[in-house]
C-alpha cells in the first residue's frame, strides 16, 4: 500500500475504462524501440486500456506512451528491486483500477498466445472463462531466439520481433510443484540449457499466470509467477485432464539484449542479486548462439498445442 | 405459416433481434420472452428495434434463473401466446436468443411439412440418460430443491445429502413417467395445446415447480402423455461440455456448421460476426435436402471433453500436472531399459538398433553426461546432455525424452554406476520394459586394467547399488514389465531371453533372430570372482560361476556368432 505514494501519474485516461474493458498492466524502463509493436499487438488482440508504470525511462518511452489515446501512465524513480520488481506498483494499480475486470499483466517483451488466438479475439477467451467460472489463466513463458548470434540481426522499431527470434525449445522443461503457494514451478528452455547448465536451480521460472479476472483482494506474490489467494494458482489439472492454457512468447533475445544486460547489471535491480543477468553477461561476451539443430521454428499456436506446451483444454 | 418460433432471451439482444427479424421476414411468427431480471430500458430498446416487424410478439415476463421453474413458466406463456395469436402455426419451435438458423427457413418448413404430426423433442427415461451433471437423475423428481444451485451450492448439496440419508421421497403424480431431454424442442399445435390445456395442468405444475431443472423434464415428461408420434431428438444442435454448460460456436466453426446440415445451432458467441453474416443472408444456391448430420461437430466436442478429463498420456505441462496414479500413462509411449547388456555384449547397442529398428541410447543416466544415441550433445526437444540439468529433475528428463520422441521406440542402458534416482519411477511405469542381467557390471571390471583393490572396492559398491535397485524392481508396486536374470543364467542361454525381449518390443522386429550380439570373452571370469571372494567380497548377483569352469559361449569371439537354428 505504501508503494502507491511512489507512483506519480503522468497522464490518466482511466475515465475511459468501461465495466467490461480488458485491461493490460505493465511496468517498463527504456523500451521505446519495442513499444509500437507491443501496443499494436495487444490492441489487435482486443485490449481496451493500457495501465503502465514507467520506471525512470530516459529514452523517450514516457513521452511516447503519454501520447497514446488508450494509455494511462504513471512514473516512478524509486527502486524496482524494492518494489519487488514492480509487483507492488502493479498490485496497487490493479487493486485501484482492475477490480471486476479481466487483467493481463505482461512485460513489453512478452506476447500473449492462447488457443484460437488467430481466429478469436481475447474477449472470446474471457467470455468463455467467465462462463466456465475460471478466474485465472496460465501462460508459460516461451523464450524465443534467433538462429545465429543474438545480436546479429538488428530489431527495427515496429517490427514483429518473431521475424528474427522465431526459434524455441520444444521439450526440455522441468516442472515441480511449489507446496507453499500451490503453483507449478517450471524451468528449462534455452536459458537453462546455455546459461544455467551447471546451476539448474538458478534458472529463471517460466510459469506465469498473466490473465486474471481481478478482485481487489487478489495480489501477485512474485512477478506474475504466483498469486494469492492460492486457489488462483491451480491453473493445472491434477487428475489427468488438461486445462486450457496459453504461452507468452518472450522476445528477450534480440540485439537489444546485450545493451539491456549491461544496463541491468549496472543497476543491480533484478532478482537474486541479478544472478540471471550476471550469467547472461558472462555468456554474452562470447556472443552466444542459442540455436541448436533441434530448435523448433515457430508457426502458430496449434503447433505449440501439438507439442504439448499449451492446451485447448475443453475449449473447442 | 407452418412453424412459429418461441425465443427465450436474456442477453445479447441485438443478436436476438437480428434472428427474430430473419425468421419473421421469412414468414415465421416469433414470440419473444425476455427474462424479467433484464432492465426495462434494454427491453424497451429491443421492442423498438422490432417495432416494424409485424409478426413479432412479446410474452409476459418471468424471472429465469437457471434450473428453476421460471424457464418453464416463460415457455408456457410464450407458447400459449403463439398458439392464440397465430392460428396458422402448426409447429412451435423453442429457441433461445443465442440460437442461429443454419439452413434456409424454407428447408425447415419443407422438412416439417413432410412430418406434420411429428413432435421433435428429446425425451429419455431417467435410467437411460447419460449426460446429467451431478449424478441427479431420478432424484430430480423425488427430492426437494429449495436452495439455489448457483448461489447456495453448499446448502443445495447438503440438503440433497440430508434427504438421501433420511430416505425422503416425493411422490411422482400417478401416470407420469419421468423423462429428461434437451430443452430445445419443436412440438405440434395438437401436442402443445394438449399439454397447456390439460385439466391436470395445475397439479402437474405444482409438482414440477419443485423438480430440479424442470425445463429439461416438464415438456419431456408430459409429451409422453399426449403425443402419439414422438421423435426423440432435438432439431437444435446444442452440445454440452463436461460441466453441463453449452459449447459455444465461433467464426472458425463456420465450415463445420455448414456441413452439419442442422437447422438451428446454439449457442453462438454474440460477437461471431462471420457466422451471423453467413447464415442470416439468404443462401442462393440452396443445398440438397439433407438430414441433420452433426457427426463431425459431435466428434470435435467429444474430443474436447476427453482432452479436459483424460488429457494426453505422458504429457506434463503448465496446465496438466497429474497427481501420482492419476497420470493416464506416466509416459507417452512404451520404452525399454537394458541393464547389463551393453556390459556383457560388445556391440549390443548397434545390434539392438539393427534387429529391432529402434532408437538405442547409451547410459542416459551416466554420472558424467547424458549418453544420447550417436553421442549427440543435444537431442529431440533441445534436451541438453548436461548431467546436472538431468539430475536436477530426472523424472522430467525421462518423460520429456519419451514425449519428444513419440512414434519412435526408445531404448537405453542403465546400471548401478548410473544416477539411481529414476529407479522408482521406472519401476512404477507400465510403459517401461526393464531387462536386467544382474551382476553384468562385473564384466568390464574383469576386463579393466586396474589395481585389484580398486576393483574390489568398486565391485562392492556396484553390487550394493544394484541390490537396492533390484529390491525396487521386485517391490509390491511395480507396474513395469520386469525381467531379471543372473549373469550365469543369461550366459548359459542368451538367445531365448533376447528373442522374447525383441518380440515384445514390436512388430517391426523379425520373427526369428539370426544374428546374436557379440559376447565379451569370459574366459577366467570364474577365477576373477573367486579372487574377489578371496579378498573378502561376496559377489552374489552374478549367479554361479565355478572357478576354473569357464562358461560355454566363452569362445564365441573367435568362432561364428552364436546362432539359433
From TrEMBL, chain A:
GO terms for molecular function: transferase activity. Pfam families: Glyco_tranf_2_4 (PF13704). It comes from the Bacteria. Keywords: Transferase. This is Glycosyl transferase family 2. It comes from Gemmobacter aquatilis.
TrEMBL record, chain B:
This is Peptide O-xylosyltransferase. Residues 555-565 have a biased composition (Basic residues). Residues 540-565 are annotated as: Disordered. The keyword ATP-binding does not apply. The lineage of its organism: Bacteria, Pseudomonadati, Pseudomonadota, Alphaproteobacteria, Rhodobacterales. Keywords: Disulfide bond, Endoplasmic reticulum, Glycoprotein, Glycosyltransferase, Golgi apparatus, Membrane, Metal-binding, Signal-anchor, Transferase, Transmembrane, Transmembrane helix. It is a single-pass type II membrane protein. GO terms for biological process: chondroitin sulfate proteoglycan biosynthetic process; heparan sulfate proteoglycan biosynthetic process.
Amino acid at each position: 500500500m505504501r508503494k502507491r505514494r511512489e507512483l506519480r501519474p503522468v497522464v490518466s485516461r482511466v475515465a475511459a475504462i468501461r465495466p467490461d474493458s480488458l485491461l493490460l498492466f505493465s511496468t517498463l524502463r527504456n523500451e521505446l524501440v519495442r513499444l509500437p509493436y507491443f501496443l499494436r499487438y495487444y490492441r489487435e488482440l482486443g485490449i481496451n486500456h493500457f495501465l503502465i508504470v514507467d520506471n525512470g525511462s530516459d529514452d523517450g518511452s514516457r513521452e511516447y506512451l503519454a501520447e497514446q489515446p488508450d494509455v494511462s501512465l504513471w512514473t516512478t524513480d524509486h527502486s524496482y528491486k524494492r518494489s519487488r520488481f514492480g509487483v507492488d506498483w502493479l498490485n496497487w494499480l490493479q487493486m485501484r483500477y482492475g477490480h471486476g475486470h479481466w487483467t493481463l499483466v505482461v512485460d513489453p517483451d512478452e506476447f500473449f498466445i492462447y488457443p484460437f488466438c488467430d481466429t478469436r479475439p481475447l474477449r472470446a477467451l474471457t467470455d468463455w472463462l467467465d462462463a466456465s467460472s475460471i478466474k485465472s489463466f496460465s501462460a508459460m513463458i516461451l523464450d524465443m531466439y534467433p538462429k545465429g548470434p543474438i545480436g546479429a540481426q538488428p530489431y527495427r522499431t515496429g517490427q514483429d520481433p518473431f521475424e528474427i527470434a522465431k526459434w524455441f525449445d520444444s521439450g526440455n522443461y522441468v516442472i515441480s510443484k511449489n507446496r507453499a503457494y500451490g503453483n507449478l514451478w517450471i524451468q528449462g528452455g534455452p536459458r537453462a540449457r546455455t546459461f544455467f547448465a551447471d546451476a539448474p536451480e538458478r534458472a529463471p521460472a517460466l510459469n506465469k499466470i498473466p490473465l486474471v479476472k481481478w478482485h481487489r483482494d487478489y495480489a501477485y506474490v512474485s512477478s506474475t509467477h504466483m498469486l494469492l489467494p492460492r486457489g488462483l494458482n491451480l491453473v493445472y489439472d491434477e487428475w489427468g485432464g488438461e486445462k486450457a492454457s496459453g504461452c507468452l512468447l518472450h522476445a528477450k533475445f534480440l540485439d537489444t539484449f546485450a545493451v539491456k544486460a549491461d544496463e541491468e547489471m549496472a543497476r543491480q535491480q533484478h532478482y537474486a542479486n541479478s544472478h540471471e543477468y550476471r550469467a547472461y553477461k558472462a555468456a554474452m561476451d562470447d556472443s552466444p548462439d542459442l540455436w541448436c539443430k533441434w530448435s523448433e521454428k515457430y508457426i502458430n499456436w496449434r503447433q505449440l498445442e501439438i507439442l504439448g506446451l499449451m492446451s485447448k483444454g475443453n475449449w473447442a | 405459416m407452418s412453424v412459429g418460433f418461441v425465443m427465450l432471451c436474456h442477453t445479447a439482444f441485438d443478436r436476438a433481434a437480428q434472428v427474430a427479424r430473419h425468421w419473421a421476414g421469412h414468414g415465421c411468427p416469433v414470440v419473444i420472452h425476455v427474462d424479467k431480471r433484464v432492465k426495462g430500458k434494454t427491453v424497451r430498446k429491443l421492442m423498438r428495434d422490432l417495432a416494424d416487424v409485424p409478426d413479432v410478439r412479446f410474452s409476459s415476463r418471468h424471472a429465469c434463473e437457471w434450473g428453476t421453474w421460471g424457464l418453464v413458466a416463460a415457455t408456457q406463456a410464450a407458447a400459449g401466446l403463439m398458439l392464440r395469436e397465430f392460428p396458422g402455426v402448426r409447429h412451435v419451435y423453442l429457441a433461445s436468443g443465442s440460437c442461429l438458423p443454419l439452413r434456409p427457413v424454407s428447408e425447415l418448413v419443407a422438412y416439417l411439412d413432410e412430418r406434420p404430426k411429428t413432435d421433435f423433442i428429446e425425451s429419455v427415461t431417467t435410467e437411460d440418460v447419460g449426460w446429467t451433471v451431478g449424478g441427479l437423475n431420478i432424484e430430480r423428481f423425488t427430492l426437494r430443491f429449495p436452495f439455489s444451485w448457483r448461489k447456495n451450492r453448499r446448502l443445495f448439496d447438503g440438503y440433497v445429502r440430508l434427504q438421501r440419508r433420511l430416505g425422503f421421497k416425493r411422490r411422482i403424480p400417478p401416470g407420469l413417467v419421468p423423462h429428461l431431454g434437451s430443452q430445445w424442442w419443436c412440438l405440434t399445435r395438437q401436442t402443445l395445446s394438449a399439454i397447456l390445456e390439460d385439466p391436470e395442468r395445475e397439479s402437474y405444475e405444482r409438482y414440477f415447480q419443485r423438480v430440479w431443472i424442470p425445463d429439461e423434464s416438464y415438456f419431456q415428461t408430459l409429451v409422453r402423455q399426449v403425443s402419439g408420434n414422438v421423435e426423440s431428438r432435438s432439431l437444435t444442435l446444442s452440445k454440452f461440455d463436461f460441466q453441463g454448460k453449452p459449447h459455444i460456436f465461433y467464426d472458425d466453426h463456420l465450415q463445420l456448421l455448414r456441413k452439419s446440415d442442422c437447422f438451428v445451432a446454439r449457442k453462438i458467441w454474440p460477437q461471431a460476426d462471420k457466422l451471423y453474416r453467413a447464415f442470416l443472408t439468404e443462401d442462393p444456391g440452396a443445398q440438397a435436402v439433407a438430414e441433420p448430420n452433426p457427426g463431425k461437430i459431435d466428434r470435435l466436442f467429444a474430443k474436447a471433453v476427453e482432452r479436459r478429463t483424460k488429457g494426453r498420456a505422458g504429457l506434463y505441462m503448465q496446465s496438466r500436472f497429474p497427481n501420482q496414479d492419476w497420470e493416464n500413462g506416466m509416459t507417452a509411449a512404451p520404452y525399454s531399459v537394458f541393464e547389463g547388456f551393453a556390459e556383457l555384449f560388445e556391440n549390443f547397442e548397434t545390434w539392438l538398433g539393427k534387429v529391432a529398428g529402434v532408437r538405442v541410447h547409451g547410459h542416459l543416466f551416466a554420472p558424467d553426461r547424458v549418453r544420447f544415441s550417436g553421442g549427440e550433445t543435444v537431442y529431440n526437444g533441445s534436451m541438453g546432455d548436461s548431467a546436472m540439468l538431468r539430475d536436477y529433475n530426472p523424472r522430467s528428463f525421462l518423460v520429456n525424452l519419451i514425449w519428444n520422441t513419440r512414434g519412435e521406440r526408445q531404448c537405453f542402458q542403465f546400471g548401478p554406476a548410473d544416477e539411481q534416482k529414476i529407479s522408482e519411477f521406472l519401476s512404477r511405469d507400465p510403459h517401461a520394459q526393464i531387462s536386467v542381467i544382474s551382476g553384468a557390471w562385473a564384466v568390464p571390471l574383469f576386463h579393466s586394467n586396474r589395481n585389484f583393490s580398486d576393483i574390489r572396492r568398486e565391485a562392492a559398491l556396484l553390487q550394493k547399488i544394484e541390490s537396492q535397485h533390484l529390491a525396487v524392481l521386485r517391490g509390491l508396486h511395480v507396474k513395469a514389465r520386469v525381467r531379471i536374470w543372473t549373469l550365469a543364467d543369461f550366459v548359459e542361454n542368451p538367445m531365448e531371453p533376447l528373442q522374447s525381449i525383441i518380440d515384445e518390443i514390436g512388430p517391426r522386429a523379425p520373427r526369428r533372430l539370426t544374428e546374436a550380439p557379440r559376447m565379451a570373452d569370459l574366459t577366467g571370469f570364474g577365477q576373477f570372482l573367486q579372487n574377489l571372494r578371496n579378498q573378502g567380497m561376496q559377489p552374489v548377483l552374478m549367479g554361479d560361476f565355478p572357478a576354473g569352469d569357464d562358461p560355454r559361449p566363452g569362445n564365441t569371439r573367435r568362432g561364428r556368432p552364436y546362432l539359433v537354428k
